[in-house]
Structure formats: C-alpha cells, structure tokens
Amino acid sequence: MHTELPPSNPEIQYEKTDAHPRPLYQFLFWICVICVVSALFSWGTLRALQYWRDGASTAAVMAVPQNGPGAGQPPSPRLQTREPLDLATFKKQEADILSSYGPVDREKGLFHIPIDEAMTLALERGFPVADQPGSEPATAAKPASAAKPASTTKPASTTKPVSARPPARSTKQ
C-alpha cells in the first residue's frame, strides 16, 4: 500500500464550505412574484383600455352618412376587398361583350359584333396593304397634272379581297 501524502502547497487556498441554497431559492421566489404581478398589472391595464375604447368610440353625428348610396362607405378611392370575385365578374362582362351584338354609339352608328364574326369579315374583306416605299401616301391629294407612277403594283383599294365564299353569280346577261 501506498502511504505517501499527495504534495501540498500552503500558498494555494480554497473555500472549505459549500454555498447555501437558501439565497438562491429566495431569489427565484421573488423573480416569480415579480413576473406574476407584472402579468396581472398588464392584464388589468389591457382590460381598462379596452373598456375605455369601447365607451369612447362613438362617431360624431355629422361624420356618419345618413342615407343614400354611400351610407356606411368611406369616401373613394376605396380598397378592393374581393379581388378574385371582382376579376371573375370583369372577365365575364368582357366575354359577354366579345361574344354578342350591341351598340357602341347609336348616334354615330357604331356597333360591336362577336369576335369570331369580326375575324371572318376581316378575312373576307381583306386587310389594307401598306404603301410601297417612295410612293405618296394614299390620303394625299394628287394634282391633276401629275403623271402616274411607273410602278407595276396595284393600289391597295383595287386589290381583290381574299374570300372564303365563292363569288356570287350575276343573273344579268
């Protein structure tokens, strides 16, 4: 058996007693008490402010619209609250316009037709052809003494439209 003592240094000192747990428990107790009191105070303040808000939130008589179409609505512009429903309604209205007949301006004699029929008419009647480079615009008035241009192409107004239907036969002979 070993009988030697471990080496010791008289200059090194350490605490020979343990820490007491009572001050630690007292600290934890008072922290918990402060947290509970703070929570109760905050809850009471919240309830008091809600009660005060509910009692004081009556609008002035002159600020509320009495009757009419805008009763209960804020002034325009208003926020859009039903975007998907509004978009669906808008698309349905546009589809109805594109697939039906109706007046645009009766005084000027403008009417809209279904888009499929408009495309068919555009194919039957043809599309306007752009002027050739170097020629005068079709809308410009030509003087009577001006010579005809030497181009061999026909003007856009005399070109025959592409037709999906055969030409109608004449009954006169």
Structural class: mainly alpha
- The amount of helix comes to 25-40%
Order of helices and strands: HHEEH
Strand order of the largest sheet: 1-2
How many individual β-strands?
A: 2
Low-confidence stretches: 140-168
Radius of gyration: 47 Å
Strand content: under 5%
How far is the N terminus from the C terminus?
A: 147 Å
Q: Multimeric state of these chains?
A: single chain
Overall pLDDT level: 75
State the major sheet: 2 strands, antiparallel
Number of helices: 3
Shape: elongated
Task: Please describe what this structure looks like.
It contains 3 helices and 2 strands, in the order H-H-E-E-H. By secondary structure, the protein is mainly α. Strands 1-2 form a two-stranded antiparallel ribbon. The radius of gyration is 47 Å and the shape is elongated. The model is unreliable at 140-168 (pLDDT under 50).
Can you give me a brief rundown of this structure?
By secondary structure, this protein is mainly α. The chain has helices spanning 22-56, 83-98, 115-125, and strands at residues 102-105, 110-112.
Write the layout of secondary structure elements.
Blueprint lengths: L21 H35 L26 H16 L3 E4 L4 E3 L2 H11 L48
Antiparallel strand pairs: 1-2
